[in-house]
Amino acid sequence: MPLMSGLDLKQAYRQASVQQYALIANNFAETDILLGLVAAYSEAKSDLLLQVSHGAASFAGGGDALAGLRALVGYARAVTERHKIGVFVNLDHVTPARVDSFLRPAVDEGLCSSVMIDASAEPFEENVAQTRAVVEYARGRGVLVEAELGKIKGVEDEISSDEAFYTDPDEAVEFVARTGADLLAVSVGTQHGVSKGCELSLRPDLAASISESVRRANLDCPLVLHGASGLSADQVRRLVEAGVVKVNKDTTYQYVHARTSCEFYLEGKEAVLPPEGTEFDPITFESGDSPWHPNKKVFDPRIVGREVQRAIAEVARAMIDQVRSGGRTIYG
Length: 332
What we know:
Helix 6 links the parallel strand 4 and strand 5. By secondary structure, this protein is an alpha/beta fold. The relative contact order is 0.16. It has a single domain, classed as Aldolase class I (TIM Barrel, Alpha-Beta Barrel), CATH 3.20.20. The protein is built from twelve helices and ten strands.
């Protein structure tokens, strides 16, 4: 399925809200994670929301974030074209400093269904002003805007906070009313990066209060959960029931990628690393008097890549079950 528009994504969020499930926003920076996700979501018949941060795009573009975003989105378009599910792309955590160089060109070139402007580190009035400006720019181009109010502890890309500040429901209503944001990322006790769900002071009650306050004000702005890696299935479901329709996942995929690769190469290290004391030339494949040589059936990156794809697909299936999005797609 070709990448779908912000209007299509809005329809997907409305369906999720009515039917009480959520979309996982899946961060990726390279192809093995993407291919694992595509396999899982196609099998589950669930709409696939991909997410790219400025840092991920910069990595993919060799330091040029816009080039990297074009490459990642182009690849995603090519490999999802034959699958009968909705496919969307969100720009994750774009700071005000990156709006002109990254967000606006991405919107203009049709590289995203939605964008997240993160001015949460700024004072309230500045956050309102920065968010409103992005909404005014993106809305006429059919792109949804996600904003953030409150601070989530931890590090995500270039966003860092040593402390968490819970989102205030009344302030959330004012913020949404003044900015026109389509989605609101709230701080309810999660953390960016590596965190154990059992150690978090999670507040589903606060998420429910924010969601109810926004609805009572006749505002259409569902909630987003950042820092969701590490949460249990029960914790995720409680937050979805409280009004969350978008759940971000990044750290989980990074860890699964690293662990799968590490275990694969530890098991096959004798096929890749020359014996101690043996000098091996990777250009001539000469190893002196030693009969040792590497095994291409192990070191070919496609071999470990397939293992990573399988592992990513497995964990993605489990998270699809957590948010109950399996079998739900707006694709007609």
